[in-house]
Design a protein that fits this description.
The protein is mainly β. It has strands spanning 15-16, 22-28, 33-36, 39-41, 44-50, 55-58, 66-72, 78-85, 88-95, 98-107, 110-115, 118-125, 130-137, 142-150, 153-161, 165-170, 178-183, 189-193. It is globular and about 50 Å long.
């Protein structure tokens, strides 16, 4: 192992490209944005760090928005990210090499790439205390399926088990959460780990 670079990271983890050459991460912008005659500050931006050259660049240097949750697509051609715009957090995707144009995937809380052509996005519905999942065909940006799941499940962090199941935090029998495989089509569930949170599947 070797030391690469020390940076002031956002709370969300960095994402390494599939070819292991570039790290995408969230950190403060170097540019100071003026919000009023009396207030100036920086924003959380998307940075790309080239491991070979040991250089980093602010991919969103000119954008006066907050960014978070950056992820590479499985083929390394795209980056998805969370951004606060118009007073709500929305997901966007940019193509590497054409970073000036971003595709808006809509409001959401969590995004996962299933493969190069499939994305799943979760969104909380506070009116019905439920979570709505959207399956999106990419790059068409077409919603092909939606599914609503009500409490007591938590989807702040979830993992997908193709084709229709999700590993999530379940408070049905344990207020401290168990990890459950939930079949979104059949509504069936199976607890796999007790007293556990934050499911992540290895790639």
């Amino acid at each position: 192992s070797k030391f690469l670079k020390k940076v002031d990271l956002d709370v969300t983890p960095p994402s390494i490209s599939p070819n292991n050459k570039t790290i995408a991460y969230i950190s403060k912008s170097e540019r100071v944005f003026k919000h009023s005659p009396y207030m100036k500050d920086t924003r959380r931006h998307i940075w790309l760090y080239d491991i070979d050259t040991n250089k980093a660049r602010d991919l969103t240097a000119e954008l006066n928005y907050e960014h978070s949750e950056v992820q590479w697509s499985p083929d390394g051609k795209y980056l998805s990210y969370h951004s606060m715009r118009d007073k709500e957090w929305r997901f966007y995707i940019i193509k590497i090499g054409n970073e000036n144009y971003a595709t808006d995937l809509g409001e959401g809380k969590k995004l996962l790439w299933l493969d190069n052509n499939s994305i799943i996005v979760s969104m909380d519905d506070s009116r019905t205390v439920s979570t709505i999942f959207r399956w999106i065909k990419w790059p068409n940006n077409q919603v092909v399926k939606t599914k609503k799941v009500t409490a007591p499940y938590s989807f702040s962090q979830f993992a997908v088990v193709p084709p229709n199941s999700i590993i999530c935090e379940d408070a049905t029998d344990n207020p401290d959460y168990d990890l459950t495989i939930l079949d979104l089509e059949r509504g069936e569930k199976n607890t796999i780990v007790t007293d556990a949170i934050l499911p992540v599947l290895a790639k």
